[in-house]
Amino acid sequence: MSAAAPAGLLPVAEALARILAGARPGAVEQVPVEMADGRVLAADLAARRTQPPADLSAMDGFALRAADTDPPGRALRVIGESAAGHAFAGTLGPGEAVRIYTGAILPAGADAVLMQEQAKTVTDDTGSESVRSTIPLASGAFIRRRGRDFSAGTVHLRAGTRLDPGRIALAGAMDHAEIPVFRRPRIAILATGDELVRPGAGGPEGTIVASNGFAIAAMARRAGAEILDLGIVPDRRAAITAGFDRAGAWPADALVTIGGASVGRHDLVRHVAAECGARLDFFRIAMRPGKPLNFGTLGPMLLLGLPGNPVSALVCAHLFLMPLIAALQGDAAAGAPAEEPAILGAPLPANDLRADYLRARLARDAAGRLVATPAADQDSSLLTVYAEAEALILRAPGAPAAAGGDPCRILRLAR
């Protein structure tokens, strides 16, 4: 049973709920159906036509009357052919057949299709062709009936659905050349810290190469966002304020800050946000890694302050920024649980009053079960461990000690 969060620390679920409550999808735009992959529908899509548009053959063979195959062996005169896009124009009568190909319209008068493999054909001296069935057929055999897939006017894709290749295929088949989707969210990213330098920039002893921003931008782009990289600014009020101003002028739907989120003398992000008129909601979460997480609003712009420790920032981005980006796109599944069961590959001690997110590798055991093995060193500064991790093991506050082989819950990392 989960324990209560420590005083002053917000439970993870409540923090996520507050973040998502402030997310509003952007404007609706029309995009070509072939460019809609990954976008979120802004309106229901109904079929504009019926599919199939007529009764079609499901096989290469012969269209005929099922009654003419019982008993089998009767010679049926072949009077023409029907191919996809080239329908037979006449009407089929008793004792007659029409050669037909997969996807072709069933001729009038026919009620079954005889597969080529179950047919015996003969051509006489005059060039006339006849066919005999080797089996009796039931009416409707190998026919795809009109409207079997969908009918005009029926809604098959709902607003809030994220489009993937299968859904794009359906939208196109329903005769939609353009798709109404929510615009991509605009996410500004600002890294803070006197000690930070860009890769390759060099610097005196004690500098740290800043890479969190690149990783979080990559995560956000994969989630469908447009990115404004505000770079690195020092721990100075004026520099941080200028970053806030640039994000608001873009305008960003959300400004993500990295670092400066804790309570130290140089952690200025929350103070600058308040000076700029922001409404701050919370700034500490009952989780590890990632306790110093900030959230608030500055006018219409959302503010999400991530911790500066690399793994803390990345885990928090996975847990909070990715669902936020989904919600800003109108995704009906934003914030839905993405956990799955596994078993532990190593023992774990009892947990304290914060939720733990442990980096882990995944494998399958001899029985095919998913095994999550936590890294031995879970320090929040270790990018090498994060880069090799495939999932996070979720440990609830107050969870008892667990042995290898015990059940657990995991959250897969994008790889």
What's the quick description here?
The chain has 415 residues and is an alpha/beta fold. It has seven helices and 26 strands. α1 crosses α6 and α3 packs parallel to α6.
Task: Describe the overall structure.
The protein has a six-stranded mixed β-sheet with strand order 7-4-6-5-9-8, with no helix packed on it. Helix 1 crosses helix 6. The model has no long low-confidence stretch (mean pLDDT 94). The chain contains seven helices and 26 strands. The longest helix is centred in the last third of the chain and has 19 residues. With 415 residues, it is α/β, with parallel strands linked by helices. Strand 23 and strand 24 form a beta hairpin. It has four domains: 161 residues, Molybdenum Cofactor Biosythetic Enzyme, Chain A; 46 residues, Molybdopterin biosynthesis moea protein, domain 2, CATH 3.90.105.10; 89 residues, Molybdopterin biosynthesis moea protein, domain 3 (Molybdopterin biosynthesis moeA protein, domain 3), CATH 2.170.190.11; 73 residues, MoeA, C-terminal, domain IV (Beta-clip, Beta Barrel).
